[in-house]
Request: fold
Amino acid sequence: MERKPDLVVRSTNADETAVIAEAIAHVLVAGDVLVLGGDLGAGKTTFTKALGLALGIDDAITSPTFTLAQQYDGGRLTLHHLDVYRLDALDEVIDLALPELFESGGVVVIEWGDTIAPALPAGFALIRFEFGEGDDDRSLSLTAVGTAWAARVGGLGTTLADQIIDRQDA
Reply:
């Protein structure tokens, strides 16, 4: 059974998505994993671009759909950006050297990461992107998996108080 999200935030445009990404970037620490799931075209790469900027990365962040993985240095933390949409089998995850990335001291963002759940570490933040009612309306729901993220959700809720539509208790 799927858990209720710990925090649900509404975004009506790319600028609001950037505000959400910036708030999350401020609480990131080395070794964190963000798993992005949800609707195709709902803003996962847009979020990751804003996250990279908030970390101080100057390089242009692009979707790694065909390369599967990109690494961006030069910010407060190294950003490993993966897109596992095209993987056909969980066995292909081995080629990505995920355990090494999780221990690299950077931040790992995995688009479509919910599809490789068995290969994920014990603790991560799952962020689901879903379309809202309007063309640019999005709902971002964060579910803390593990104690490290559970401790940070309250602070994020406070930081994003103006953006929150619905905050649900875990």
Summary: The first strand starts at residue 7 and ends at 11.
